[in-house]
Write a structure and sequence with these properties.
Number of helices: 3
Largest sheet: 4 strands, mixed
Distance between the termini: 201 Å
Shape: rod-shaped
CATH class of the domain at 113-201: Mainly Beta
Number of strands: 9
Oligomer: single chain
Order of helices and strands: HHHEEEEEEEEE
CATH superfamily of the domain at 113-201: Cupredoxins -  blue copper proteins
Strand content: 25-35%
CATH architecture of the domain at 113-201: Sandwich
Length: 202
């Protein structure tokens, strides 16, 4: 019982203090006069949609001009005018023409070959006389018709043996003139010593 009374008393004292504090607070004439309060201005702004403007591209940066080589475009200095006076030139000297030697040498033609067919038989040669010119190339085709003979022309270093039926060929140059005897040097019977002939070189 005493505790309850103390609580009620405490509440009453607190209420009285609050009331007294409210009565003693100064009155603000601006807030207490409702007519003097400013009239709120209605918001007439229209919500305008925001449009994102395109971002401008940066302007290209101009590169600095490249210095040009003045030596390439420089013009050469004008040459002085040529002299109008005729230059005196020495008279051209005519050199004697040098005779040219012919590089093509004419080769001497090979001497014509003179061929003779000669047969040998018992105690004679046919033909027994052979005539040529000096410098001729002479070819003798000789054959024995019966037995073994020979053909000897010592002035031209020729000596061959002739077997029966076997042809032999000798060739030489008639490089000297005169009459030269050829003969058989193999004994072939009683008339062997008379088996001779002549080579005439003119």
């Amino acid at each position: 019982m005493p505790q309850t009374f103390s609580k009620h008393l405490t509440i009453l004292i607190s209420t009285a203090l609050i009331t007294l504090g409210a009565g003693c607070a100064p009155t603000n004439p601006e807030t207490s006069n409702p007519e003097s309060a400013p009239t709120p201005t209605p918001n007439t702004a229209v919500n305008t949609p925001v449009v994102n403007a395109p971002t401008p591209e940066p302007a290209p940066v101009a590169s600095p001009p490249t210095p040009t080589d003045t030596t390439a475009t420089s013009k050469p200095a004008p040459e002085p005018p040529a002299s109008t006076e005729p230059a005196t030139k020495p008279a051209a000297q005519t050199e004697p023409a040098t005779p040219t030697e012919s590089t093509t040498q004419t080769k001497p033609s090979a001497p014509a070959v003179k061929t003779f067919s000669v047969t040998a038989k018992t105690w004679e040669f046919t033909p027994s006389v052979i005539t040529v010119n000096q410098g001729d190339q002479v070819r003798l085709e000789i054959k024995s018709l019966d037995v073994t003979h020979s053909f000897s022309l010592p002035d031209f270093n020729i000596k061959i043996t002739l077997e029966p039926g076997v042809p032999q060929t000798v060739e030489f140059t008639a490089d000297k003139t005169g009459e030269f005897v050829f003969a058989c040097r193999v004994y072939c019977g009683d008339g062997h010593a008379d088996m001779k002939g002549r080579l005439i070189v003119k």
